[in-house]
Specification:
4 helices, Rossmann fold, about 100 residues, globular, alpha/beta
């Protein structure tokens, strides 16, 4: 039995050349028993399609970061392994303009 068995993981994918590796990571996590929910930025879709990730994770891919708040209770682990400054710029800009999680 894997340590990931029945863990709920939110995998964030942003637009960068390493985003193509996310499909391999999703496959490994699911193979080890994890429940993976993928969320991706619009630019990440230039590197890997949501259809590929939803097929591997067996869940609908989210692209609205504010939907994340609805699945925080479900979450065991948040992963954003292949990141770029884009994700931080998006979150910071949203925080400044709209306030914290509003």
């Amino acid at each position: 039995m894997s340590i990931l068995n029945r863990k709920n993981i939110l995998l964030g994918i942003s637009g960068g050349i390493a985003a193509y590796k996310s499909a391999f990571l999703v496959r490994l996590l699911v193979k080890n028993g994890a429940n993976v929910q993928v969320i991706m930025t619009p630019n990440a879709k230039d590197f890997v399609t949501p259809l590929t990730l939803s097929t591997l994770s067996k869940r609908t891919v989210l692209s609205d970061f504010f939907l994340v708040l609805e699945i925080i209770i479900w979450l065991s682990l948040l992963m954003h392994p292949f990141h770029s400054s884009e994700i931080y710029n998006d979150v910071l800009f949203s925080y400044i303009i709209e306030g914290p999680f509003m």
